[in-house]
Write a structure and sequence with these properties.
The structure is a homodimer of 159-residue chains. Chain A has three helices and eight strands, in the order αββββαββαββ. Chain A is α+β, with helices and mostly antiparallel strands. The relative contact order of chain A is 0.21.
Chain lengths: 159, 159
Amino acid sequence: MKSPIRPLDDAARDMVRSILQDARFAALSFIDPDTGAPMVSRIALVEGPDRLPLSLISDLSHHSAALQKIPVCSLLIGEPGPKGDPLTHPRLSLQAKASFVRHTDVSHARLAQAFLTKQPKAKLYIGFADFALVQFTPLGAHLNGGFGKAYILGPEDLD
Amino acid sequence: MKSPIRPLDDAARDMVRSILQDARFAALSFIDPDTGAPMVSRIALVEGPDRLPLSLISDLSHHSAALQKIPVCSLLIGEPGPKGDPLTHPRLSLQAKASFVRHTDVSHARLAQAFLTKQPKAKLYIGFADFALVQFTPLGAHLNGGFGKAYILGPEDLD
């Protein structure tokens, strides 16, 4: 079977940078610790400091409890518009490790400021004790730039 | 901690029906059999016969090989538009089991017809030997109708 994976080039790197910079939300894929089954939720997502994807998550959510037990997860980033074939729209499947940043952590203020710059409406609830910032450290990624345009990226390609 | 889950009502059931009927694509959460890590890909998705979600997947894709080994997966369905807060847009996280339907299977013609009715452009490649239809049997779901509007559904709620 012919591999559909292409060598990584500057155009693909630019696509990755755009997808991460433009992100407003993502699909988070995680493991349910009780069953071992894969689950998926929509989360808010912005590009935070050090270009690490950053979310704001309620402790009441299913995925918060799950990520605290099993932090290895994936993010699908890059949303199609209302028109055209959604499968030709570029998207990034990012494998990552989630780290929770609580109000008591020294880095919280800086990350909260960065998050609010991109999602100002979150100021209504970012101060609630049961909302935590979550930073995602990339472990690797698959970029799909449309049919037949697939690339595999390592952590060094995502710095 | 107060549970955010509400009792299932007719308005929530209607929301689920709309999300499934309107689906054009979904985020598929699956397990990478080589690493055990959760992964996520965008796939085409329509409501097929018997109201089961139906996709068309290339054997060249990472998720095809994975689903053939570990068919338990999740689908995130219901996409926000370009405006407004994406986290207030209703979405369904559906836990499901994937079944592959090949060209040699007796049900292929009927399912292919149903798929093409909703995604006519797929006629260009639905006949390729390395494209299979994939039917998803629901095992349960979480409906998120926006902040504070969460519901849990069993398979009986998804008939």
